[in-house]
Fold this protein.
Amino acid sequence: MKKRSLTFKFSLMFVGFTFVTLVFGSILSYLNQTNLYKQQREESIRYVASYLEEVITSDGSDFLWWQKYFVEHYKDLLVPHDFGPKEIQEARHKYENLFLKKYPGMILGVDISFDELSEDVKTAYTVYKHEYYLDKFEQAKQRFNLAYVEYVIPNTAGKSIMYALDALRDAKIVDDEKYIELGITVTHAFEEHQTEWEAWISGIQPTGYDAFDNEFGKTYAYYMPLYIGTRKLGLIGVEVEIGKVNHEILKATIRQMLMIGGVLVLFTLLLLSIIRSQYIRKLVKLSNVIDEYSEKKNPKIAELLKKEVTNEDEISSIMAKFADMIYELELYIQNLTKTKQALQDTRQQAIELNELAMKDSLTGIRNKTGYDKEVQKIEWEMASGLKKIGVVMIDLNFLKRINDTYGHDKGNIAIVSLSRMVCHIFEHSPVFRIGGDEFVVILKGHDLENIDELVTEFNWQLKQAHDNPTLEYWEKISAAIGYAIYNPEIDSAYENIFKRADVEMYKNKKAMKAVREE
């Protein structure tokens, strides 16, 4: 029988082990990544559907009026195909101007019902609302990288659905102008759209998804019934693409495994070369000193190794030497621990630098950069259902006069003094310096609930400073203050709250005659 060298045997064993490891590792990695992505996308489309539901239901009667008129007149409505935020505002102004012209002093839904409006006002209103709702759907589609977002009105008797809001705008030409094709109605068989019909007929959110293989690739579709009050109006549909992403995950997994395989092959070649040159040729010479060397290692480890030595072949001699690897392994673990600590220190330094970048150098409070990040966070929280929040605007009066008369160092003293006073009074809320003499407080918790008392305290402290004869002019700080509390009926975004607070602050400044004297 032909005798094979240990190097050859090790090579075969390592090649087989590497192949099996790469195959199973690739399969497990692919399955894990696709499953994780599926879960993330399922959560995403549920969140998007809930978000769009909140956008629509927040409009209440407005959406009911829009849908009723849309269903009855969609064939005659002309909604421009190409529009953006600017065009939406223009459509809104067109409707509001028509309404004010025909019904001066009246409020829709209070003094006059929607059905009592003239046809041109109804049409302008419906076009504006259609652009507004469709823009919200398209924003959700783009922001969450979805395949499709829609609002449909099912017809159970006809087994069909009407696309009322379609994030993919179909076009039609009327008098050489491009408009959106409205009210597209298609047949949806129950067996092909089970989840869709389940959501509509049952009137509750389904637990499953409809799977399609269409022009978007393989997609999952989720549907949520829309209610205004107790009235069921339609379905919000969200589709997420799965097939293409799975293909990309597969390609990325293959590339990853090929790179790992290449590293393993190189490492194997190096390891086999070292074993051949440094150990196999010297095994006979080293056999005489193995017992002595083994005495310096852990006796228990050496004992376990000796139990595995059943004959005098090369493998038995190598196993007796493996104890030496214990020390190298310990050193390797220590080096890994040191490297991990170094990475943690670097990460902490990065966090500290980031905090420093958001801090105002003069007052020590957060600056405009920190404020912008806080606003972004608040906008997401508002989209997720945050209801209790307020904004306080504070503006230092006569800063220019102090700078021009006494110098900028005295102006800085006034800014710092006002900053301390604001932070002391609004101690439960974050305070930001967003301009030279402008401060913003994001009201939360205790401060939000006691805002009137805190504003009174603020004005009282200003008066105390003004009436203190021992203070210099720049120490007798004067400031205007205004605030606004979130009102879901009029505030569609954080910016609305901020603007209302700014208006109130400016009213206060005018009342203090600080505007004129500035």
